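Try this one yourself first.
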């Protein structure tokens, strides 16, 4: 997945969390697409932060 395909808010929050970034990088393309689809549907910065936090924990 190209970094340019990521929603801006998702990319910015992902860059702030090393664990989440490493986890995202290790995902299959299908898994990444699901996460990005979810990121596109969030309605606030706080929701995006929660998404990134949850990603960093798994």
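Now uncover the answer:
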């Amino acid at each position: 997945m190209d970094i340019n395909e990521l929603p801006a808010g998702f990319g910015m929050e992902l860059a702030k969390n090393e664990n989440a970034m490493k986890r995202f990088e290790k995902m299959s393309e299908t898994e990444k697409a699901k996460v990005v689809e979810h990121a596109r549907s969030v309605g606030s910065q706080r929701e995006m932060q929660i998404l990134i936090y949850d990603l960093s924990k798994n």
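Discussion: The chain has one domain: 3-57. The two ends are 20 Å apart (CA to CA).
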